[in-house]
Amino acid sequence: MSLPPGFLDELRNRVPISQIVGRKVTWDLKKSNQGRGDWWAPCPFHHEKTASFHADDRKGFYHCFGCHASGDALTFLREAEGMSFMEAVEVMAREAGMEMPARDPAQARREDRRAELARLMDEAVRHYRVQLKGAAGAEARAYLARRRLSEAAIETFEIGFAPDQRQGLFATLTQRGADPERVIEAGLAARPDDGRAPYDRFRGRIIFPIRDARGRCIGLGGRAMDPNARAKYLNSPETPLFDKGRALYNIARAREACGRGAPLVVCEGYMDVIAMAEGGFEGAVAPLGTAVTEDQLRLMWRIHDEPVIALDGDTAGLRAAHRVIDLALPLLEAGKGLRFVVLPGGQDPDDLIRAEGREAMAALLKEARPMVDLLWARETEGQVFDSPERRAGLDKRLRALIGRIQDPGLRGHYGAEIERLRAALFGAATPGRSRRSGPETGGGWQGGRKGQGGWFPADGRFRPGNAPSPGVLPATRASSLSAPGARIVEDVQETTILAILAAHPDQIEAVESRLEVLAMSTPDREALLHALLAQSQHGDDLPPDCAASLESLRRLPHVRISPAARPEAAPDFVRAVLEETLARLIAARACPAEIAEAMEQIEGLADEGLTWRLSQTAQERRRAERLSLEQAEEKGENHAELSGRIRALIEGQAWRKHRD
Fold it and tell me: Side by side, which strands form the sheet with 53-56?
């Protein structure tokens, strides 16, 4: 459906975002400022006890300072309640008292047909649940009892039974007035090729209803009671409601559980999911009889940043894990990954929980391995790398795999981790590593003196060759001096920005949008930045740990002598320093990522296109570094005058602080 221009803007203006978000959260009224439309609550997307989720009625956006979820009211309805875009628009239109634009006749017919199919699916679920409780379901009930499914689980998951009857469900539905063609279209019955009457698709099977994220029944799964059946499990066919590559079993309950802090665990089948839920792991889902698809991966990441893939510990389970790795590599993003649990001894989650209890599963989930570990194991286990050719072959394969990752920063981290694993495998010595003499060789080299063609260690005996490097002293290694030059500069810029923000919170609003997406290099600084942003909104005190971090930061020498970090500094001067420092830090971080991505494309000699690209990137960096001064020039300020003011303040205050 096409929406008229301005319709969405009118929706957002009429319905405060707090009204939409308030359906899912409990506002912290002490922290919120209702008069200003400034609302705070514990985040509905990740488990937390503090109110770090912020909604602003004036701007119409929400942002979580913990998990960084953000968006407008429509985004919230789609992410938190699993709605499609048009479904979210309809909800907001009802809240605003606005009529939806008229649907075109073809779309209206499609939506009406889907609604009728969903109604038939619900009738089928009720029919099969009645059959399980009757005389025909005795064998099925016995099987479920042997699998230790409780009555509560059977009710929760709406498990039913389809007797081995050719037209049991079809006759029931058509007698109640259902259109036979719609029963077939819903996937509940099939028409044979020989022209005979339609027959039930599910016969002699335990029935598992499959519901979407909104709770609508979109399909069925059936487990055969006959061990000689051609297919142990049978799913509904593709229908206007059901696309098995885009659905996950138990998705609605899992999403709610993950919102309360549960891990999202991906199992192989229905019974594994139910066993996990019975064991207390309610965030369990399963693909529907196929390998995990790209759409299913994206659906998982909408619910949890790090789904855990729990696969049977047999050959088939490992093959499935490897397929997921190959599928996920080009889809990975910063903060969106996968972890893996391979169950021992060919067990599945149901077997493990029944044999060893939920504690065994909890221990496995706690030790879930990151995807890079399984990727490395797949490429190296059971192989011998006793020649340069074999090692080069491994390197080539790994480069090709890592190259499939689209995010440059994440690709770099994968490369660093693979290099670490490679060094451990081959026992590679770090270049330039110091080799100090031990007691058995006459003591250390300290105090020695050079001689012609050799050197004299502390024991006074001549040694041929060059003296070994003393290496880096521990105190030096622990300081910023051990970091590359760019890292030292960024460290100074980060701490200066935080000190200025703490001393002048009134300057935050002008640069708030850039600060919200600025990543700090340490968790302490990240927490302090978020606390300062929150403090500027409602004036709360800093948390104790953030206050301690700020005090440590203020004791740094370059912060102590920074004139802009002093409370008495002039606002115009503070703003100029803050803008320039922030622009330099953002530019310094953006440039290496772009250059690294371009360099990866160079094979042998760089062509003219890549050379031009690198030169353009360098120019962009220099242009960004001049950003704040150019902005000052537009306001009529003179560069020389501004530089003179900065120089005078530094010279007049830095030394006074030094004497203190």
Answer: 38-41, 53-56, 61-64, 70-71
Q: How many CB atoms lie within 10 A of CB 600?
A: 15
Has residue 438 got a pLDDT over 50? no
CA angle 397, 332, 24 (to 5 degrees): 160
Decide if pLDDT at 431 tops 60.
no
Residue 640 burial (10 A CB sphere; 0-12, 13-18, 19+): exposed
Domain limits for position 644: 482-659
**Tens digit of each residue's pLDDT (9 = 90 or more) over 5-54:** 778 888 888 888 999 998 888 898 888 888 888 999 998 887 677 888 99
**Cβ(234)–Cβ(187) below 8 Å:** no
Rounded CA-CA distance 422/460 in Å is 40
Q: Look up residue 459 and give its two tokens.
A: 């024991």
Domain check: are 522 and 487 in the same one?
A: yes
Q: How many CB atoms lie within 10 A of CB 402?
A: 20
3-class DSSP assignment, residue 494: helix
176 and 43 share one domain: no
What is the residue-wise DSSP string for 7-24? HHHHHHHHS-HHHHHTTT
Element (H, E) at 120: helix 105-133
Cα–Cα dist 120/216, whole Å: 11
Q: What pTM did the predictor assign?
A: 0.57
Return the axis-axis angle of helices 608-625 and 571-599, rounded to nearest 10°. 170
Residue 414 lies in a domain: no
